[in-house]
Structures are given as structure tokens and as C-alpha cells.
Write a structure and sequence with these properties.
four-stranded antiparallel β-sheet, three-stranded antiparallel β-sheet, about 70 residues, globular
Amino acid sequence: PTPSVVTSLSCHRGLLAAGHASGSVSLLGLQTGEPVRLLAGHGGMVVRVRLDDSVLESSSVDGTVRAWRLA
């Protein structure tokens, strides 16, 4: 999926997680702005993202919550 309008943000240790209206979540390097990963798994707009050392959590208006391992 192609990212769309950003609906939520979280940053931690040089990474930025962005939740999108399209239901995807992108992970970017803060210093470079370069994409690290694009994650798909929601059927609706992402309303919350939370990033820590090893897990990115996201939730969506479709009622799903995802936990993505980063390591």
C-alpha cells in the first residue's frame, strides 16, 4: 500500500513511525527521512502509533491493534 495522509506520529531513538489514513504505517529514519519499512495490516485509518526499542504498536478505526517486532 502507498502511504497517504499522516494521522498519527511517534518517535524513539532516531526512528519516526507514521500512521496513515490508508491503514498503513511507515517507519522512517529521523536524520535522513529515508523509509526503513512500510507495514500493512489495518483495514482503516490508523489512529495511534507507539514506538519503543523493539516494538511498534498501531491501532485503527477498524478495531484492530497490531504489534510489529522491529528487531
